[in-house]
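Recall the central idea of this unit: under ordinary conditions, the amino acid sequence of a chain determines the structure it adopts. In this exercise we apply that idea directly, starting from the sequence alone.
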Amino acid sequence: MRKLLVAIVVLAGFAGLVGVGALSVLLTAGRGAQSWGDCSASLGPWGDGKGRGERDAAALQQESVGIAQRIIEIGQQRGMSPRAMQIAIQAGKTESNLANLTHGDRDSLGIFQMRPSMGWGSVAQITDVNYQINKFYDTLLEVPGWEEMRPGAAAQRVERSAYPMRYHQWEPMAAHLVSTKGQVPGFSGCEDMASSNVLAGKAIDYADDQVGKPYVWGAAGPTAFDCSGLTQMAWKASGVDIPKYSQSQYTQGGAHIALEQAQPGDLVFWGHGREPAAIHHVALYLGNNEVLHAPQPGESVERTKMWDGGELLPTVVRPAADTPA
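Accordingly, the structure predicted from this sequence is:
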């Protein structure tokens, strides 16, 4: 476990990493968090780069564009909501890159990697584009409360994947396609989601209440915590589930945001050589260049200045809700 560095060394190293200008941004308090209600199809609910949805859509192969168009057309014919079309596109992009595959894991086939052995239909059916899309919509309609879920979470409920967080990646792209190909003006797919600042505030309040409790490796409360146990339970208190371990929180915990754009509640990571594969520590960013974390054995949960030491990753993770608050 690493040892905390003094604040002067910390700030100097951090400034060397992201630049004095970026550091001054992080030191500025009171920045408003991106609101789910303010997001747009081109930006996406994660706020992780203006135009990402449009760029991801532009990179699609012609077959994929055609399948996305067909998902929208069938959805419109059936009177499905724009949210349903977005969910189907995110699922198809994740499972097959929106291609009608004739292969997959075990007997998985088609756009959504449906399996004959799991009752999705015959081989002929689940390689027929129209059948697959209608079957996806039929199954989605059977998911309780799917309209209130984050689109990627609803896609997971249909697909039942072992990797549930991966569907979120294509949220901006799917919203952009529904807005443009489906001619749904201003559609973003996230109008009813809780604002990220409200969720982050709840996470920070929970973590604040744990200050002074001892670090115990592997602990996730209520009387002791390790670093990832604290961040996991803090976000759980706001209604957002993220994985337990720091490396999993980095890869599956939410949207990747540049460090200089960090907002209170974001997860900040340290790893040997600044490498994601070597992450060994995670903390909650508080603003004002401060973090709240469970440091190491022999120490307690605390607020402290953020340090670098050559290990601070240039990317933070912003968890997001699967359902409205």
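Residues 52-181 form one domain.
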